[in-house]
Amino acid sequence: MNISVILAHPYQESFNYAIYQTVLKTLDGNGHRVFAHNLYEEEFNPLLMGTELLNGETSDPLVLQHREEIKNADGLIIIHPNWWGQPPAILKGWTDRVLRSGVAYDFAEDDDGSGVPEGLLKAKAAIVFNTSNTPAEREMDVFGDPLERIWRDCIFDFCGIENFHRRMFRVVVSSTLEERQKWLEEVQKTVDNYFPK
Ligand SMILES: Cc1cc2nc3c(=O)[nH]c(=O)nc-3n(C[C@H](O)[C@H](O)[C@H](O)COP(=O)(O)O)c2cc1C
């Protein structure tokens, strides 16, 4: 299978980076064709500018490459920390520029864009791995877990991917080495489960 993996974290010593490495190793071991992108490392430009807003046209080769890969992906894995209840800006810009009309969704010809679109992504499953420093109870009671709404409803359901799995690892700042090792084992098992040999 063609699997796209997107990491949005600026620091290689981070737990997010460890998740990314585990994901890549597991997919590779299972024989998949992996399209891996560390957005900060490749200096992905997240700014949707000018007429690209109107028609999606761009000469940015990296954006064009991402669009092509995502269209052909059989599976998708996204890894990022919770920053203000949102993905880091670089990943927000990736969604703005890559998941465009004609790539990830389309409206019927007589629809002005206010209707319900047809999802175009053919990926069988999408996984989102997140990290945060807020205990689960406070996240639900006070913030309402906005990342779940963003990824499940606003993005993947909209683009036609219903088989969605999201896992938030928390609380990273006070976690022990043993906990983090167990979390990485869970990452491996989840990837094995969704994208087996
Ligand atoms: C700009 C910024 C905003 C953050 N906002 C949140 C937040 O809204 N909720 C939360 O639980 N943690 C928040 N954090 C903490 C990060 O989620 C946490 O540092 C990260 O998940 C730890 O994983 P890492 O070691 O891989 O960076 C924020 C951190 C930064 C730098």
Task: Offer a few descriptive terms.
about 200 residues; alpha/beta; Rossmann fold; five-stranded parallel sheet; globular; binds flavin mononucleotide
Quaternary structure classification: single chain
Largest sheet: 5 strands, parallel
**CATH top level class name:** Alpha Beta
- CATH-defined architecture: 3-Layer(aba) Sandwich
SSE order = EHEHHEHEEEHHEH
Strand order of the largest sheet: 2-1-3-6-7
Which structural class should the secondary elements be placed in? alpha/beta
Tell me the helix content.
40-55%
Q: Please report the total strand number as a whole number.
A: 7
Distance between the termini: 9 Å
- The CATH homologous superfamily is called Flavodoxin domain
Tell me the strand percentage band: 15-25%
As a whole number of angstroms, the C-alpha radius of gyration is 17 Å
CATH fold field value = Rossmann fold
The general outline is: globular
What compounds are bound to the protein?
A: flavin mononucleotide
How many H/I helical runs? 7
Q: Could you list the spans in which at least 5 consecutive residues all have pLDDT below 50?
A: none
Number of domains: 1
